[in-house]
Amino acid sequence: MAESTDPQFIGVGGGAAAREIAVRFRDGNAPILVWLGGYRSDMLGTKAEAIDQWAASRQLANLRHDYSGHGESGGEFHDGTISRWLEESLAVFDRFADKRPAILIGSSMGAWVALRMAQELSRQNRSNELQGLLLLAPAPDFTHELMMPELSDEHRRQLETQGYMEEPSEYSDEPNIFTKAIFDDGEKNRVMTDPIQTGCPVHILQGMQDPDVPYAHALKLTEFLPMDNVTMTLIRDGDHRLSREQDIRLILESLERMATMPGA
Length: 264
Known about the structure:
Elements: E1 8-12, E2 19-26, E3 29-36, H1 46-57, E4 60-65, H2 82-96, E5 102-107, H3 109-123, E6 130-136, H4 142-147, H5 153-162, E7 164-167, E8 176-179, H6 180-188, E9 202-207, H7 215-222, E10 230-235, H8 245-259
Parallel strand pairs: 3-4, 3-5, 5-6, 6-9, 9-10
Antiparallel strand pairs: 1-2, 2-4, 7-8
Helix pairs in contact: 2-3
């Protein structure tokens, strides 16, 4: 049985698009918990580690990976798009989940990937493989909904002339880089346009002091989800990272409820 502390690598894509994706997999009982991290995050962050430890304490399977250009995975960050990271996430899911009931845990941009995964699984008549979605500070369609309306003339000039733009990051000394490709590809992957058929319950945790993803965005997301299957917890003093001790406790309590639902 592979321990989650030992990274494995799987190949995704072919030719010039081939890249090695780092995976940490802890085998165990169903449901399998599948971590999907955020933009420029990796699978060794506070939330991902806490969820892995919690899963181990309950003998549940846990699966996490780094997108290409992130963490221990290969590939270049500037080549990344939602389509590319979705392809990798589905490949990892197909390799390790083994058709057991899964709870997708999407953090920030990872919530966008989780929703797209749910759509793709639904198209393949595989919605029964999802037991639930837990979305943390969800940022689906962030390029279209959150960034494009705020782009300055200088940002637009940078995107057209050099193919990317830079923004200061609150979480790193290095600026955030957003490519023209991620904006263009984001338009092809928008989910907040029609009802999203997840085929499973959805629980959203959203901080009301989130400077990156306003809680109004999470409220708007619920308009596209089946309302009888969605719950939302607004954390009045919560920020975007939701990594404080009390935030982690809420995340694990939510997972406890989802993992023990009837049929689990």
